[in-house]
Amino acid sequence: MQTAQNSRNGNSPTPRIAIIGAGVCGLGIGWRLAAAGCTVDAFDQGEPGRAASWAAAGMLAARAEVEPGEETLLDLNLKAQEIWPGFVAELESASGLPVDYRDDGTMIVALTRDDAEALRFTYDLQKRLDLDVDWLSGIEARQREPFLSPNVTAGIYSPGDHQVDNRKLVIALQRAFEAAGGAVHAQTTIRAIDIAEDRVRGVVAANEESDDIHHAADVVVLAAGAWSRDIDGLPTELRPPVRPVKGQMLSLRMDADAPLLRHVVWPPGVYLVPRNDGTLIIGATVEEKGFDGDLTAGGMLDLLRDTWEALPGITELSVDEMWVGHRPTSRDDAPILGPTGVEGLIMATGHHRNGILLTPITANGVSRYILEGVVDPAIEPFTLDRFAKRRGKRARPAPDGKLGVVS
User: What is the reported pTM?
Assistant: First the structure.
C-alpha cells in the first residue's frame, strides 16, 4: 500500500493536502503534515481558529465530563489527556509561544442536598471506571478554594483534569504550522470538494478578491466543525451528521495576584475557568438554535446567577467579554475521525465539547493515517463508518479497497 509519501502520479515526492477549516484540529493536523514534508494548505471561511476553537474554555476534563454510556469516548479522551504535556512542550518549542497549560486540577461542587446526591452518582460512576478522583466535604472544598460559598456541601476533586488557554493554543498552532511550511488561507470559503471516480481531486475555493478557483489536492481533510456537512460535492452517504449547538459565554476580570479561583470549578449548571492573567471564563449555555449568534439577557442571567451562587465575590468583578460559539456536535456526541469511502477524503470533525482536549490525538491520528496508511487504534472506533453500521450497512470502500490513502 502506497501512502502519502508518494503522489498519485509518481512524479513528485510531495503530496498536496487541503484542509477545510483552520481551527485547532485543522491547524494541528496541518502542522504534523507540513513538518513531515507535505505541501499543506488550510482554508478558513473566517480568521484561523476564531470559531469554536476561540469560543471554548480550554478545559481538559476527561474525568469530570464522563457520562454513562460514553466509555469508548472516555478512553479516547484519557489517551488525549496523557499526551497533552508532551504536545505542549513540542508546540511551545516549535512556535516559540506559551499556551498556558495548567495542571491545578478540577473541582465539581454541590450547593444543595439534591446537588450532592447527583454528585455522588457522578463520583460512583467515576470510581467504577477506575478514575483518579477524590470525594470532598464542603469544608475540604472550601479549604482548596476559600472564596466558594458557605453553601457548598460537597465536591469531587480530579487532579488529572487540567486546562490550557485555547486562544493562545490557536495562535501557537498557526505559528508552528506556518513555520513548518504550511499556508493558511483566511477569509476563504470552500465552495465544494472535487470528487471523481471515488477519489478526491481537490477543492473549489473563493474569497472576496477572486472567483471560484480549483485547488488541486491529493488529500482533503474535512475539519470544518459545525459547517462540515454543508459543503457541496460530498456524496449524501458521506455527509457527516454534525450540527451546531449554540453556547453563550462571558468572562470577568479578577485580580491576577489575588484571584477568586485557582482551580477549574464546576458548580451546578456552569463551569468556571481561571486564567493566569486574572480572566475568569464562565460557560456555557447549551442551545439547539442552529447558527443563531445572538447574546441573550436570559443566557447571561443564568450564567451569572449560577456563578454567583457558588462564588458570591464575583459581584465586584468587571465584565470583560461576552460571546457565542457553536459546538460541532455529531449524532452520538463523539468525533468523526479518519478515512471514508472516498480515497483521499479524511474526516476530523464533530468533536462537540472536546475539541481542545482531543486536539493532540486528532492531529496525531489523522496525520498518521495520511502519512502511513495506518488507522491508529485510538481513533478506529470513531470513523464515519460507525453510522452506516448502525443503519445495517457499511460505507462504500474506494475501488482499490483502500479507505482514503493517497496512491
Answer: 0.93
